[in-house]
Each structure stands twice: as C-alpha cells, then as structure tokens.
Amino acid sequence: MADFVDPIKTERLVLRPFTAADEADLLEFESLPEVARYLFNEPFDEEDNARALAKRRKQTSLAREGDTLVHAVEYDGKVIGWVQLVWVSVTHRQGEFGYVFHPGYGGKGFATEAAVEMLRIGFERLGLHRIYGRCDVRNEASARVMERIGMRREAHFVEAEIFKGEWGGELHYAMLDREWRASKWAS
Ligand SMILES: CC(C)(COP(=O)(O)OP(=O)(O)OC[C@H]1O[C@@H](n2cnc3c(N)ncnc32)[C@H](O)[C@@H]1OP(=O)(O)O)[C@@H](O)C(=O)NCCC(=O)NCCS
Questions:
Q1: Ligand 1: does its nearest atom lie under 6 Å from the Cβ of 87?
Q2: Whose CA is nearest to atom 35 of ligand 1?
C-alpha cells in the first residue's frame, strides 16, 4: 500500500504528515499531565517531544504489517492533535486506531472528525475487515469518541494490567467493514 502524504481536508481540519516546524505545537499539549493521564507515556519534556516528532515524521506509509500511519491534525494553521492507524494483521485484515488532542480544543468534535479519517483509510484504501480502538476504562471522553463514531463496545478487561502503578481496566471498541459501509461516514 502506498504512502499517505497528501493532505486530507475535512470540514474543519487538515490531516497531513508531521513536519519539523510542528515541534512547538506538539509540545504544547504532549507536555500536559492531563493529556498523558491515560496514555502509556508520561508528559513529554522537550527531548521526549523531539524524539517522538522525529519518529512520527517517518510514519507516513502503510506498506507492511506492523506499520503505523500518523497524521498531524491542523486547525486554523496550528497542530491541535494527531491520529494514527496501525496495520495490525495483513492475513486477518485488522487495524487499530488512536488519537491525542490538545485539551484547549476539546469539546468541539475535532477528535471525532479526524479519527474517522483513519477509519476511512483503513476500510476504503487498505481494505481492512475490522478496526479497533482501546482506552482506559476511566477515559470517558475517549470512549465517547468511539461511541459517537458508532463503534461497538466489545470488551471491558477488568484490572488486566498494572497501569502507572495501579490496576487498570481497558475498554475495546471495534467496527467491521460492513458496519463502516452502513454508517454515515462511508464515502
Ligand atoms: C480522547 C480525546 C481526544 C477526546 O476529546 P474530545 O474533545 O472529548 O472529543 P471531540 O473532539 O471529538 O469532541 C467531542 C465533544 O464535542 C462535542 N461537540 C461539539 N461540537 C461538535 C461537533 N460539531 N461534532 C461532534 N461533537 C461535537 C460533543 O458533544 C462531545 O462532547 P461530549 O463528549 O461532552 O459529549 C481527548 O480527551 C484527548 O486527547 N485526551 C488525551 C489523550 C487520550 O487520552 N487519547 C485517547 C487514548 S485512548
């Protein structure tokens, strides 16, 4: 499968590969404790941020199993978040998506609007059969994003891992290609 370097324009957003110029915008939200609260990483310092940006700048194609596509999400010329799609299995046509946004731009539907584009790529360009997303059981905003998209809650793993020093639970949501085609989001 090809590179995904061409910008994607939605109603209010532009999704496109990260560039070196995005460093300050990225640090502005990746450094916040509230953003890292339910992520596996801790809040970024400048060094963490530079390292993550260098890695994400290269994540522009889905060529083989295990590849991750990352898009910066721009609103009004500023990067306010990012979304990703992981090609989990070629044989089983499975993918996983994710999203991280600046809380200063929350509550406007931007994460939902951008995350849907990862599903579109997965289903309509990569031919995936099923795409799933996972979140901490306490991450209600993230669960609501997946519910708003119309994904099914498939599982609640209770205290299945030690997350940041305490027992953590995880919700799994998923959508199948036929559910995508029947949804309001399909092209
Ligand atoms: C998870 C996260 C992206 C959710 O952000 P969010 O702002 O709640 O999500 P959206 O941008 O899609 O906005 C949805 C909200 O805007 C409201 N909204 C306003 N205008 C809207 C519009 N035009 N379209 C859709 N929703 C709209 C919705 O009602 C919804 O509010 P509600 O959740 O109170 O019902 C954000 O909390 C985040 O980045 N957290 C830190 C990182 C993280 O945990 N990532 C997920 C890891 S699993």
A1: no
A2: 144
